[in-house]
Write a structure and sequence with these properties.
Bound molecules: 2-succinylbenzoate, magnesium ion
Order of helices and strands: EEEHHHHEEHEHEHEHEHEHHEHEEEHE
Helix content: 25-40%
CATH architecture of the largest domain: Alpha-Beta Barrel
CATH topology of the largest domain: TIM Barrel
Oligomer: single chain
Radius of gyration: 20 Å
Number of domains: 2
CATH class of the largest domain: Alpha Beta
Number of helices: 13
CATH superfamily of the largest domain: Enolase-like C-terminal domain
Largest sheet: 7 strands, parallel
Structural class: alpha/beta
Strand order of the largest sheet: 5-6-7-8-9-10-11
Strand content: 15-25%
Number of strands: 15
């Protein structure tokens, strides 16, 4: 791929409104933008989606910066590759650190697609020209949730996800259902429950949810299988699935009926596609998860969600869901509940250089010989 330079930009942006879960409150989003430039001056972009603290997975912005700077970029400097797929074996010698790996791997995919004058969707064998868009409501106020849902329906979103936990579930969902009896709703627990809460979880069946996402702990693969036998609401796994092997195990054991695929969580587009292909073959529907991300990661998600197995609207919302001004141009927009899949080379969005500049905390450069 004749890489000439890699640049890392650490950026920070305030969310329009706080994103509240039982695990914490995100008000400001830090992220890492990876820019890989080849000898012809073509640049590919990726985004590190780890948060500032390890509340969602074990990685943070700082651990990703370390992994990229001291491990992954030096590995690539020593081992030139011809195709982004080769990072799969190259990164195999490094345990976990999936979001750091994905940040670099996705940039290489964008560069590779641009270099071949193909859209990233085409490169990944996507089949959709538009993808269905869903959105997440993350607040501890029922009144605010109802207000936000009303707005999001007006904006055209095809399904709404709400965050739940044992202190905010039955009454919360009853009230939402009272206002929106037929709305496609799913609930994400981010591991707020254990099997001791079996009766509470059974009680959620009456709300006709599309699914319940990650009710139990990330390692509770067996417990999720036990739970799925006792509830009629389909279980969707998020935090539990960090690899192809995890997906296989969960499906084989009956721990879930749906999988949320996040590129960062599973270590890149290659692994995301492997999980997709397996689920497609097994008839397990998948959807693309979100990470309160900036436009680069949003663009990679759009390309991934154009694959045929992504039959459920994911957490891919408009740039304006979280940001006053995104770092890409044009921004991601939702129209009639869908997002257009770009047909121009690579991710199909340009960088908003002014915005990248004004949100930048620091920058690092690496030269390749
Ligand atoms: O559990 O899906 C999750 C955001 C950050 C971390 C974890 C999760 C989320 C979301 C998606 O719910 C939010 C979004 O980007 O739309
Ligand atoms: Mg989730």
């Amino acid at each position: 791929m004749k890489i000439k330079t890699i640049e890392l930009f650490v950026i920070q942006m305030a969310l329009k409104s706080p994103f509240l879960t039982h695990l914490g409150n995100v008000k400001d989003r830090e992220g890492i933008i990876v820019k890989v430039t080849n000898a012809d001056g073509v640049s590919g972009f990726g985004e590190g989606v780890a948060f500032s603290t390890p509340w969602y997975t074990e990685e943070t912005v700082t651990t990703c910066l370390h992994m990229l700077t001291d491990i992954l970029i030096p590995l690539l400097q020593k081992n030139p590759i011809k195709h982004p797929d080769e990072t799969f074996s190259l990164f195999k010698s490094i345990r976990r650190n999936n979001m750091a790996k994905a940040a670099l791997e996705t940039a290489l995919w964008d560069l590779y697609a641009k270099d071949h004058a193909a859209s990233l969707s085409t490169m990944l064998e996507g089949t959709r020209s538009v993808i269905a868009s869903g959105v997440v409501v993350a607040t501890d106020s029922t009144a605010k949730a109802i207000q936000q849902i009303e707005q999001y329906i007006e904006d055209g979103y095809q399904r709404i996800k709400v965050k739940i936990n044992p202190k905010q579930d039955v009454d919360f969902l009853s009230e939402i259902r009272r206002f929106f009896p037929d709305l496609p709703i799913m609930a994400d627990a981010n591991s707020a429950y254990s099997l001791h809460d079996l009766e509470r979880l059974k009680a959620l069946d009456e709300f006709n949810l599309m699914m319940i996402e990650q009710p139990l702990a990330p390692n509770d693969i067996i417990e999720h299988a036990v739970l799925q036998k006792q509830i009629s609401t389909p279980i969707c796994l998020d935090e539990s699935i960090v690899s192809f092997e995890d997906a296989k195990l969960a499906v084989e054991l009956g721990s879930c009926k749906v999988i949320n695929i996040k590129v960062g969580r599973v270590g890149g587009l290659n692994e995301a596609k492997r999980i997709h292909d397996y689920c497609y073959e097994k008839g397990i529907p998948v959807w693309c998860g979100g990470m309160i991300e900036f436009g680069i990661s949003r663009a990679h998600n759009i390309a991934l969600a154009s694959l045929p197995g992504f039959t459920i609207p994911g957490d891919i919302s408009a740039s304006s869901r979280f940001w006053d001004e995104d770092i890409i141009s044009p921004e991601v927009i939702v129209k009639n509940g869908v997002i257009d899949v770009p047909v121009t080379p690579g991710i199909g969005f340009s960088i908003n250089e002014k915005r990248l500049q004004e949100t930048q905390l620091c920058k690092k450069s690496f030269a390749f010989s």
